[in-house]
């Protein structure tokens, strides 16, 4: 499939890459830049509570990865209430004019699972204030629908706990969410290797967001390239439509009209 023929649209904005990449956990800015360039990602996430973006350069991040080239997706990582998340994302808009944001409200410090009620509460507030919200949530279809109803521009169910690398633990749940929501569904958290990303796309997801799978890989740049290819291949496979699964064998060669 040619680039640009299958655009990825979020909040009315079109992108070529369906791979979103985080900017945390790398050894330095140079490695961050190299990995993200290798990934082909156009949207990069930044945790406002961990990175200073109050000045142009932001400790070197915005100089290495200029906003003129990349779409910054500020996120509310580290927030544990709706009020904290809303304040954090309001700050993002004040600092850089960013209105496309990733909403993350954590409910448990150990497993980093989202607090769904606080997430929905924050989403409603932010949408009313003109934000385009991409919401991190569980793989619960009912919650995903409530976030869509709240006006979120994208819903981002986890594949597994953040940073775990366990892959997609409940593929059926993810596929149901992707099938039944009208807004883009992106797998966020738990991806460990390229096959995980490919499966997410084959399940019908519009994209994949990851960070630790790259930063903790033995060869981050090479893994970034693998993830890029996996997302592209998985998307193509989904569009192509997989063959029907069969209980019994079916010969590849015709059995009629032969000698």
Give an account of the 3D structure.
The protein has 259 residues and is an alpha/beta fold. Helix content is 37%, strand content 16%. The chain is built from 9 helices and 10 strands. The protein has a 5-stranded parallel β-sheet. The protein has a 3-stranded parallel β-sheet with strand order 6-7-8. Helix 2 links the parallel strand 4 and strand 5. It starts with 7 loop residues before the first strand and ends in a 19-residue tail after the last helix. The model has no long low-confidence stretch (mean pLDDT 91).
Q: Which keywords apply here?
A:
259 residues; three-stranded parallel β-sheet; 37% helix; single chain; alpha/beta
Structural class: alpha/beta
The overall average pLDDT, rounded, is: 91
Report helical residue fraction.
Answer: 25-40%
For the largest sheet, list the strands in their spatial order. Answer: 5-4-3-10-9
Q: How many H/I helical runs?
A: 9
User: Count of DSSP E strands?
Assistant: 10
What percent strand? 15-25%
Order of helix and strand elements from N to C terminus: EEEHEHEHEHEHEHEHEHH
């Amino acid at each position: 499939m040619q680039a640009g023929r299958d655009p990825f649209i979020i909040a009315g904005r079109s992108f070529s890459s369906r791979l979103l990449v985080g900017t945390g956990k790398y050894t330095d800015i140079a490695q961050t830049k190299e990995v993200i360039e290798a990934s082909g990602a156009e949207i990069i996430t930044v945790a406002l509570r961990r990175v200073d973006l109050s000045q142009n350069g932001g400790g070197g991040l915005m100089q290495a990865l200029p906003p003129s080239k990349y779409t910054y997706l500020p996120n509310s990582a580290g927030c544990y209430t709706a009020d904290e998340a809303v304040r954090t994302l309001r700050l993002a808009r004040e600092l850089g004019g960013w209105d496309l944001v990733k909403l993350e409200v954590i409910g448990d410090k150990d497993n980093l699972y989202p607090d769904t009620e606080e997430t929905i509460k924050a989403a409603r507030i932010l949408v009313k204030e003109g934000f385009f919200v991409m919401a991190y949530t569980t793989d619960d279809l009912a919650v995903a629908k409530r976030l869509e109803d709240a006006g979120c521009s994208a819903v981002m169910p986890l594949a597994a706990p953040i940073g775990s690398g366990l892959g997609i633990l409940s593929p059926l749940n993810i596929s149901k969410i992707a099938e039944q929501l009208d807004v883009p569904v992106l797998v966020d958290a738990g991806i460990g290797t390229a096959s995980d990303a490919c499966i997410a796309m084959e399940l019908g997801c519009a994209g994949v967001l990851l960070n630790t799978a790259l930063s903790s890989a033995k060869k981050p740049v090479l893994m970034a390239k693998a993830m890029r290819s996996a997302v592209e291949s998985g998307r193509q496979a989904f569009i192509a439509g997989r063959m029907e699964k069969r209980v019994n064998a079916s010969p590849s060669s015709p059995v009629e009209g032969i000698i």
